[in-house]
Amino acid sequence: MNFKHKFVFLFPGLFVLIGILIFPIIFTIRLSLSGWNSYTPEMNFIGITNYIRLFTDDPRFWESFFRLSFLSVTTVILQYIIGFALAMMVWRDIKFKRFFRVIFLIPMMTTPVIMTVIWRTFFHESLGPVNDLLGGLGVKPILWLSDPVIAKFTVIIVEVWQWTPFMFLLLLAGLLSLPKEPFLAAAIDGASPFRKFVYVTFPLMAPISIGAIIIRLIEASKIMDTVFVLTSGGPGTATETSSFYIYIKGLREFQMGYAATLSFTYLVIMIISLTIIAKVLTKLMIKE
Amino acid sequence: MTKLYTFLKYFFISFWTVFVVAPFLWAVSTSFKDFQSVNSKVTYIPWLDFEPTLEGWRVLIKSPAKGGVDIVEPYFNSIFVTCTASLISIVLGTLAAYALSRFTFKAGFVRNNDITFFFISQRIMPPIVLSIPFFIFLSTIGLLDSLLGLVVVYIVLLMPIAVWIMVDFFNRVPKELDETALIDGCNPYQAFYKVVLPNSIPGLIVAGMFCIIFGWIDFFFAFILTFTEVQLLPVKVVALNSSITPWWSLSASALVSVAPLIIVAFVVERYLSKGNLSGALK
């Protein structure tokens, strides 16, 4: 096929994307080398001072980063297990299959930030239904939002509610596209459901699983809306994630230069760690 | 053994269904409450537990001057921004995806996969990283606090999704299709437009729905990049979540804003059951 046509197809999209992004990226890098804050709102040049500060004198960023890693890995693992289980259950015929499929999909269609506002009233410690119903069972009121440990789990619950459907959708679409022959062969051999899952379904689903987990990890690492509305990073800094910390530094304290340093470092770490995770998962799950 | 499994299965499905539906039921119930029935004790069932009122819903269409929250304009703003950005992303993303699926690109060490990864990797950036430079970028070109500015930003959010879904989809459309069209005398653009595109409707619909979902649910960009001239729905609803929260109008507006996309769940399920989605999502 003619040589030049392929560029006509590719370039509009590529250039629009690059065109929109080139300024923000260069600007962020340049800004990260400046001391832009509310006292000196100008693009001066202070070298790598910000980076030195980040690597030697900012435990709060690293804490928020590990917290983010904990939250996103936990939620994605839970979403994967629950999503896979749900997909397996409505994969083959059960009663009201299509009804349950729709129900299981609904949360991902709802705006996280708006649903979180509802969750906030849901988990309200004195006026919310959760503590009220648990109180009916004789459980003492649980401090869903103001206890530093429990607040993390509240964030996890909301995130799992919101995004398990996405995992469910990707995995169910994968299950529905599997070839029939391996299952027939397994049935002829008289394999038990458990063995069928371990030796047939799971290996066949491995590439799809990896894709789904990586996509969810990418999305989960941006966790922000939920934290923003549910706990505002609190109590204290108990649920503060990297994004939220950058937000505080940049748009609340107006340390723009330092926030850009955080952003850029964060991006580099994310790209490297996601690449490594993708490689490791592929090794672990696909056995030749 | 089988009985236990069946029992556990239905138990789990019922449990999850209740978990999914619970916040919606709570929101529906809350939207009919008034100050008294929210703040005295926890109430659930209208008429039995509390006297329902329509105040929470009425406030939504009242003008702000009369103490309403007027979500009609933000609603249309949201629809406009989401649809425009989705449409542009789908058109550009589909073209790029077609190129990446059918032709070989080579530039130094860059291959097709790297270009695809470049597109998709834009999703790694958290909104906060982009929002500060976008703030300055948009104020320089005078698009801060405008619908057009948001559309520009949302294209960055949505095009990666369109490319991701469409590359996989085109990889599944047999190459012979375009080749036959070329032999029959079409030029590459006609082959794409007349032959490949009509065969890609399911993929386009799935990509479109994903763009609409991820455009509609964005909060952070709208929160940072708009103030008073233009307001999008999520920002408007969250703004109600102030110190003295009117739970009833909050619930009512939340329900109104998530309602349209729930229809999307039905469409997605339809494609899933017909088996059209599997190709588009892998």
Q: What attributes does this structure have?
A:
A: 288 residues, mainly alpha, MetI-like fold, globular, B: 282 residues, 72% helix
Overview of the structural elements:
- By secondary structure, chain A is mainly α.
- Chain A has one domain (57-285): MetI-like fold, CATH 1.10.3720.10.
- In chain A, helix 1 (5-32) crosses helix 12, helix 3 runs antiparallel to helix 9 and helix 9 runs antiparallel to helix 12.
- Chain A is built from twelve helices and no strands.
- The radius of gyration of chain A is 23 Å and the shape is globular.
- Chain A has helices spanning 5-32, 49-57, 59-89, 97-109, 112-122, 129-136, 148-176, 181-188, 193-220, 225-230, 242-252, 256-285.
- The model of chain A has no long low-confidence stretch (mean pLDDT 86).
- Chain B has two domains: 2-53, no CATH class; 72-281, MetI-like (MetI-like fold, Orthogonal Bundle).
- With 282 residues, chain B is mainly alpha-helical.
- In chain B, helix 7 (147-172) runs antiparallel to helix 10.
- The relative contact order of chain B is 0.13.
- The interface between A and B is large, with 90 and 92 residues.
How do you describe this structure in short?
The complex is a heterodimer of chains A (288) and B (282). With 288 residues, chain A is an all-alpha fold.
**Topology of chain B as a string of helices (H) and strands (E):** HHHHHHHHHHHHHH
Structure annotation, total helices of chain A: 12
- Strand count of chain A: 0
In the CATH hierarchy, the third-tier topology of chain A is known as MetI-like fold
Strand content of chain B: under 5%
The end-to-end distance of chain B, rounded to whole angstroms, is 34 Å
Q: Give the domain tally of chain A.
A: 1
Major β-sheet of chain A, in short?
none
SSE order and pairing:
The complex is a heterodimer of chains A (288) and B (282).
Chain A: H1 5-32, H2 49-57, H3 59-89, H4 97-109, H5 112-122, H6 129-136, H7 148-176, H8 181-188, H9 193-220, H10 225-230, H11 242-252, H12 256-285
Chain B: H1 2-31, H2 35-39, H3 55-61, H4 72-102, H5 112-121, H6 127-140, H7 147-172, H8 175-183, H9 188-196, H10 201-216, H11 220-225, H12 233-239, H13 247-274, H14 277-281
Helix pairs in contact in B: 1-13, 3-13, 4-7, 4-10, 5-7, 7-10, 8-9, 10-13, 12-13
